[in-house]
Amino acid sequence: MRETKSGYEIFRQKTHIIIYGTNTVAGRLFDLILLGLILLSVLLVMLETVKGFDIKYHNQLILLEWIITIFFSIEYVLRIICIDKPKRYIFSFYGIIDLLAILPMYLSYFLAGSNLFVIIRALRLLRLFKILNHPHFSGQSLQLRNSLIASRGKIVAFMYFILISCILIGSLMYVVEGKESGFTSIPISIYWCIVTLTTVGFGDITPVTPLGQFIASLVMIMGYGIIAVPTGIVTAEIAKSEFKRGQDSKQKHCMNCGKDNHGDDAKFCYNCGDELDKNS
Amino acid sequence: MRETKSGYEIFRQKTHIIIYGTNTVAGRLFDLILLGLILLSVLLVMLETVKGFDIKYHNQLILLEWIITIFFSIEYVLRIICIDKPKRYIFSFYGIIDLLAILPMYLSYFLAGSNLFVIIRALRLLRLFKILNHPHFSGQSLQLRNSLIASRGKIVAFMYFILISCILIGSLMYVVEGKESGFTSIPISIYWCIVTLTTVGFGDITPVTPLGQFIASLVMIMGYGIIAVPTGIVTAEIAKSEFKRGQDSKQKHCMNCGKDNHGDDAKFCYNCGDELDKNS
Amino acid sequence: MRETKSGYEIFRQKTHIIIYGTNTVAGRLFDLILLGLILLSVLLVMLETVKGFDIKYHNQLILLEWIITIFFSIEYVLRIICIDKPKRYIFSFYGIIDLLAILPMYLSYFLAGSNLFVIIRALRLLRLFKILNHPHFSGQSLQLRNSLIASRGKIVAFMYFILISCILIGSLMYVVEGKESGFTSIPISIYWCIVTLTTVGFGDITPVTPLGQFIASLVMIMGYGIIAVPTGIVTAEIAKSEFKRGQDSKQKHCMNCGKDNHGDDAKFCYNCGDELDKNS
Amino acid sequence: MRETKSGYEIFRQKTHIIIYGTNTVAGRLFDLILLGLILLSVLLVMLETVKGFDIKYHNQLILLEWIITIFFSIEYVLRIICIDKPKRYIFSFYGIIDLLAILPMYLSYFLAGSNLFVIIRALRLLRLFKILNHPHFSGQSLQLRNSLIASRGKIVAFMYFILISCILIGSLMYVVEGKESGFTSIPISIYWCIVTLTTVGFGDITPVTPLGQFIASLVMIMGYGIIAVPTGIVTAEIAKSEFKRGQDSKQKHCMNCGKDNHGDDAKFCYNCGDELDKNS
């Protein structure tokens, strides 16, 4: 005999569908409202730091932030209640972010200014990727992620090498430029070197001596050339994974002669002329 | 018995050939003059905003702009008259641009300054692609466009991720740098972060504290590294489409069913099973 | 009966070997001295514009320049004399450069300051490529050049599109930013837009209004994204030509079964086991 | 009869294991401590140039530097003692670096300020690559290095061409801009041209005349376009080496002659004609 579910159990199930479901209307609507509130909340924190705006609307900003924080708190509690293994959610990436997104506001009650850390809510915007779990889209994201992970080793080795170069070039520039032109210490010179090598070029520190400008020119040309390296690494990885995907989706197997690389729409084996897809 | 065409009908046909034709001498000449006038018109609006020039030649500039506007108006009316389905033209991309290109000048009669929007005529320069409908050229444009469309999904996902990073880094820099060095609000700090991450580096806002400069260095190295990602995505797409095109041109042709994309070493048509290369 | 050559003819032949030859010791030495003199001459013109240096050594600089110019003049005359078809040399790319490299100095006799154009001698440095006509090196140069030529069409289309975007964005920024912050005319705004879109970012003109900074952010992200396009085009072309070269050099043909894609060091056909290279 | 080893010999062997070994616990620990000390030492030199810090802690900094230097000296002597062919180590890349890393400190005893060159110790950080001689990691480094070496020829040719362009464009800008706007000499103008072409854009020197800004725009667009070239070269090389590696891992093995790189669908060994895949 099946027990009838308690009202609490029914409430849990319904909430679960709304909060965690992404395929029902209610679930989608909830996700959209949530994303909207996250965005609004991030905007509010940003506006709070704009002086002219904060002076005029300080109270309204704080009020709105509190309303959103309370909504997020209820959502957090509901997420824990309506899931079967709450610990798994609480200690997951999104669970920790969700908690960190509400804590600063409560902390600001005791510690003025800590509400600024509400900006961590921006990380909740990553939920969009969860909502958009369209197979095509998530397949592309996954491919991109795998390519980046595959090229990680080479890029770290490259960055390490760049860093050592920056220390040496920075020290050289410190010696060459002296202290008149902004190169006041080796750390500052290294900062300048990174600014230059990455082709950012703020211009807050610039060489003024001819020799300094000559070395700077070499650094720039070097930076211009080596930007090719990470790009080349990542591109090659992406191209490889593209290529693999292309191959994987296309292959058909001939039962007669065993040839594999038939086209997408092949009906007969190109090698022996036997019909493909007889049994499948 | 075939009816003789009215004079109006003949005029319509001739105009159609001149305005829409791209293969006749008259059509080509018309297109060239049109492009020249569009360029001239765009130049005139630009020069009008250069103070020293405007003061000297204001009347001449306005006169020339009116002449071109009237020419464009006549052209617009003729385009509607001489086409069989005027609605399709009016609501097409080029039709709307053509209308928007003449409206601001008439509006400026009532609303001073609105003639600045004549600059929208620059969009008419896109017509060049229509004029140059050489198969080789338009094939390459199409290939480029398809590659960009194919990589759209990945690039949007990437940009979204970058934006979230910029919000977080911008807020961090706002906290670290304080308000002395230009990081006066979170939106400004986010603006700085985008300027830095994209390696533009205006230098209007730069970090001055050691910690700020350290974080900035990390942002720059990150930006330098991740420029590889969109580049890698687009390059892989272009390479893939290049590769496909390359394959297509090498393909064998089946005399029996007409299919083209057989492999290099195919002996039988994969579609109908007929032997390939019988006569060749 | 063979006629004995006149002394002039012998002189012509010897000069020809020294000036045009690149494989003899004398020819190589001449080329090296020539390159050295070109470099020295370019350096001299550069130094002449450095005030502090010019004041001190003006006379020595001018003297040295005259000596080099006279040497180049003699070389130019000899090049014409000792070649069989002087007209072909005179009107060739290098012939015109060689003439332009000596004219400004003589002109400066009549027209003060025109000796600055001696800098055109820098183009003579391109001769290095002629001297280094090592097959490996020139093969790579050729491959690079072909790749760039092959991608020309797509890059021009892309640049045209970017230019139209810059006109529209520049005008928008002119309207948005007003005239307080450096966006004083549409041409200046377009200049700013190019500076920003190419991620150069001088910082001489920067947006100050929130809306202007927002649009600027979009432009930068756009610029950061579309740098991928020319890179992708060129990379795909180079990769294609690399791939082709790789294929061309490797292919071996099996006389028995006709298979083509055997490895570099294959002795037997992988398909039928027949010996390769039987007759060749 | 085997002679018993002297105590000195045993000491030598043990030291060798600690200093040169990377697979024993003691060896790894020694490497880690060494890297930590190198990093600390580099940080100390950097901090010494930061005025505020140096004034406060000058004596402590110097003391620590001397301690590290003495440790490095002992290490250097031990490295020579415990190796069988000391000359090979002394004149190797790492041997020279190790010596240069200790000399400046001793020199500073006679020559004030020379301890700044201690920064050369940063090069010792390259040892990390030696410590991390994990086959996967060093394989990737090697692949990257080979790709860069393979593309060296093309990149040097490209850089030479860029340099000639910079000389000509720099001179043009010097003539166009006159001396009011920072383009005070041709070398400075060339420096500006490199800053602009590499998209660094410090903004310390910027064109102010309309013509100068127009030329600058062309330079920027050119720079934006040609950044594609080194990137394309390196990417194509990396992709090629990736592709080769991918092929290698798929290769079939011949049981008869041991050759590995057979094609995907090979039935017979291309080297000895023996049938492949007999047992597998």
TrEMBL record, chains A, B, C, D:
Gene Ontology terms describing biological process: action potential
GO molecular function: voltage-gated potassium channel activity
Transmembrane segment boundaries: 29-47, 59-78, 90-112, 155-176, 188-208, 214-236
Record keywords: Ion channel, Ion transport, Membrane, Potassium, Potassium channel, Potassium transport, Transmembrane, Transmembrane helix, Transport, Voltage-gated channel
Principal subcellular localisation of the protein: membrane
Localization in the cell: Membrane
InterPro entries the UniProt entry points to: Ion_trans_dom, VG_K_chnl, Volt_channel_dom_sf
Pfam family, one: Ion_trans
Entry GO terms, CC: voltage-gated potassium channel complex
Membrane topology (UniProt): Multi-pass membrane protein
Domain Ion transport, chain residue ranges per copy: 28-241
Protein name: Voltage-gated potassium channel
Origin species: Flavobacterium lacus
